[in-house]
């Protein structure tokens, strides 16, 4: 946000809807999500499990299984290309080269039978006109940048010989190998210990600042969001319920769900018996509550909430919320 | 971004070196199994015999008129021959000698030479037919799993139909129609023997397909062909090696069985052919049938031991 070209929008997601048509019914995993990603910013997608964060990320690159999944509405604009309708060939050139995605499970996102070197080098040769030696040199440089010493040795390692943190770095190195403009990271700090979490966050901050990389950071941890995010999209039941810059989200949350999430955060200053949680369960995406999906759990639900979907309310230039309280 | 050298040292694997480490790991696991080592040793020995043996043994078609039905070294048998001049049976005692270490058959052909050239034929049949079956099975299995949907359905139903054919009767029919040529026998075994492979490769690929690294490869712009050849097939290679090793003896036995019932290629001395000829002279020259039989027995056993050993070595759940 501090950067000069605030308005350089790299990726615009507009009213994206991804449904899964299963035998048990239609699962509306993503049901109308809009946001734009600006150059050099870190946009966080936040929400509980099953709220559509990961499917949103997969939908941007059309990576979900199809069938049963299908994008039933909306657009994803990158460089005036609509990724929801472009040809598979076009999409393949964009995947990895322009928009790179780091999947949730670092532990299994590397092929167990190929060496690290094979996996980085082949990724580059897939997209860039490079010979193996150039690619190798770049791979070593990238691994060093990611804070992996003796990078030459690591190239000859198999994934099982690396620790979780190292694998996460290798994955980031692979993702960065073709110098993409957008990096989507799906819960990169889940399932790693605190030390490694801090290192990974540092790494992302550095990417953003040094390379002017635009990052979509998917997490359920508002603490992480506060540390590295510029703006956040709070998701619930497949919808973006609140979009705002991080300071606004933390200090002036508008949606009751956002407030609930913030109350769940432990406070160092206070001593409590047990941590707060939002009552109830996240909704089943195949059976979303009517009206506002959050109303069964909402402490401030109105009569209208179960009956009508809340409209998107523009509170300020940067702050949007879907809630009847502000309608 | 900073990590102390100590922490890194812990991250580093105990081994250093090239990309052969994975093979080295499996090799160590395999060699802990004594039977598998015996199997492998016997197969290597057999392969050497098959490749270089024929240069040291006489021509297996060469006939020694002086020594028909000669027993192997160390054995003595009594021959009774009918002498037409005296109208009497003459009994002679014949002992094996080092000119024909494994004896000769009733035409006077050297058994050692025949066994050696039979090894060549049987191994060729085993490897070629298994190769054909494995390639077809892998292609069908991977395609079925990866493409899914109606392709999967069509290919798997085709596999089911192929499986319902009585395999051996089919072989007999093919030989009956096209004549007893070894090339046809190999082709027939290969073209019918892929069904099990296809199913196993499919089920393995189905689970691989949903693994994160396949998705990761796609997320980074890999096409279908790339995913299949770089990510799926290398991960099923261990399975394929095991299937191949375990199906070679079956193929060798199938060829021997065909030959034994008289449907083998009579121009090529496979072990099955020798065995079939030997059964007619079991009373006068038992070794002609027993020797190829022992070889078949040992070969099949060796491949099975090796296959079992490989399966255990590749299985991450077994603690060898």
How does this structure look, described?
- The complex is a heterodimer of chains A (327) and B (320).
- By secondary structure, chain A is α/β, with parallel strands linked by helices.
- Chain A has two domains: 9-98 and 181-326, 3-Layer(aba) Sandwich (Rossmann fold), CATH 3.40.50; 109-179, no CATH class.
- Chain A contains ten helices and twelve strands.
- In chain A, strand 9 and strand 10 (239-245) form a beta hairpin.
- In chain A, helix 3 crosses helix 4.
- The two termini of chain A are 28 Å apart.
- Chain B is mainly alpha-helical.
- Chain B has one domain: MetI-like fold, CATH 1.10.3720.
- In chain B, helix 3 crosses helix 12.
- Chain B is elongated.
- The interface between A and B is large, with 48 and 34 residues.
Summed up:
The complex is a heterodimer of chains A (327) and B (320). Chain A is an alpha/beta fold and 327 residues long.
Secondary structure topology:
The complex is a heterodimer of chains A (327) and B (320).
Chain A: E1 9-22, E2 25-38, E3 42-46, H1 53-60, E4 69-78, E5 81-82, H2 88-94, E6 99-102, H3 116-127, H4 132-145, H5 151-155, H6 164-176, E7 182-186, H7 194-211, E8 214-219, H8 222-228, E9 231-236, E10 239-245, H9 246-251, H10 256-264, E11 312-314, E12 320-322
Parallel strand pairs in A: 3-8, 3-9, 6-7, 7-8
Antiparallel strand pairs in A: 1-2, 1-4, 4-5, 9-10, 10-12, 11-12
Helix pairs in contact in A: 3-4, 4-6
Chain B: H1 5-11, H2 21-31, H3 34-52, E1 76-83, E2 88-95, H4 111-147, H5 149-164, H6 167-178, H7 182-192, H8 195-209, H9 212-219, H10 224-260, H11 271-280, H12 287-314
Antiparallel strand pairs in B: 1-2
Helix pairs in contact in B: 2-12, 3-4, 3-12, 4-5, 4-7, 4-8, 4-10, 4-12, 5-8, 6-7, 8-10, 9-10, 10-11, 10-12, 11-12
